[in-house]
């Protein structure tokens, strides 16, 4: 699916536990300008339900498991995140819905820019028409 990818981070394990380093523009394909995380999400809650016009993000499930459904108007797929050494890259014009949060889940998100509400497309119809205009989909 365009503007979606899986990243594998290295895990350093030396008998004292595990450490996973993530460097901006090295382990993720953009400069990290913001970090946020989601915790204490009930399993029946669906978050997201929007796309971004310019933002690049990587989602990492640090604990537990989370499902992410991705839609670029041509394809729709659901990815399970349950490994803290795996990052889900989601670029511009991909509709995302996060659901099935396990009770112990923590979703860390690395973002390429500061928070900007004008970058969000929160209506599916608007998303479809903008994506089709841009990608000719
Ligand atoms: C995304 C998915 C994966 C801020 O003030 N600063 C921030 O950096 C963020 C991310 C949110 N907010 C405020 C905006 C809303 O008043 O926090 C509130 C909840 O945000 P939202 O409803 O957009 O949260 P999610 O979980 O639906 O979506 C978030 C990100 O907003 C979004 O970019 O891709 O996580």
For the structure shown, list the relevant keywords:
single chain, 137 residues, mainly beta, five-stranded antiparallel β-sheet, 1 helix, 9% helix, 42% strand, globular, binds dTDP-4-keto-6-deoxyglucose
What features would you describe in this structure?
- There is one protein chain.
- The protein is mostly beta strands.
- Helices cover 9% and strands 42% of the residues.
- The protein has one helix and twelve strands; from the N terminus they run ββββββββββββα.
- The chain has a five-stranded antiparallel beta sheet with strand order 1-9-6-11-4, with no helix packed on it. Strands 8-7-10-5-12 form a five-stranded antiparallel beta sheet. Strands 2-3 form a two-stranded antiparallel ribbon.
- The chain starts with a strand and ends with a helix.
- The model has no long low-confidence stretch (mean pLDDT 96).
- Bound molecules: dTDP-4-keto-6-deoxyglucose.
- DTDP-4-keto-6-deoxyglucose binds at residues 34, 36, 38, 47-48, 57, 59, 96, 98, 109, 115.
Question: Which helices and strands appear, and what pairs or packs with what?
Answer:
Layout (H helix, E strand, L loop, with lengths): L3 E5 L3 E2 L4 E2 L14 E6 L7 E6 L4 E7 L2 E6 L4 E6 L4 E5 L4 E5 L6 E6 L8 E2 L2 H12 L2
Antiparallel strand pairs: 1-9, 2-3, 4-11, 5-10, 5-12, 6-9, 6-11, 7-8, 7-10
This protein binds dTDP-4-keto-6-deoxyglucose.
Structure in a nutshell:
By secondary structure, the chain is mainly beta.
Over all CA atoms, what is the radius of gyration?
15 Å
Succession of helices and strands? EEEEEEEEEEEEH
Unreliable stretches: none
Helix content: under 10%
What shape does the CA trace take?
globular
Largest beta-sheet details: 5 strands, antiparallel
Q: Based on helices, strands and strand pairing, what is the structural class?
A: mainly beta
Strand order of the largest sheet: 1-9-6-11-4
Roughly what is the average pLDDT, rounded to an integer? 96
End-to-end Cα distance: 13 Å
- Compute the number of strand runs: 12
What molecules are bound to this protein? Answer: dTDP-4-keto-6-deoxyglucose
- Determine the number of helices (DSSP H or I, runs of at least 4 residues): 1
């Amino acid at each position: 699916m365009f503007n979606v990818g899986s990243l594998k981070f290295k895990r350093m394990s030396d008998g004292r536990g595990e450490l996973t380093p993530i460097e901006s523009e090295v382990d993720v394909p953009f400069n990290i300008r913001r970090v946020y995380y989601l915790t204490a999400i009930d399993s029946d809650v669906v978050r997201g339900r929007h796309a971004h016009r310019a933002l690049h993000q990587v989602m990492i499930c640090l604990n537990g498991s989370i499902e992410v459904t991705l839609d670029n108007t041509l394809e729709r797929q659901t990815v399970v995140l349950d490994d803290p050494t795996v990052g889900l890259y989601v670029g511009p014009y991909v509709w995302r819905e996060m659901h099935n949060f396990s009770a112990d889940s923590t979703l860390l998100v690395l973002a390429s820019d500061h928070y900007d509400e004008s970058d969000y497309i929160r209506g599916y119809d608007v998303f479809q028409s903008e994506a089709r205009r841009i990608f000719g989909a």
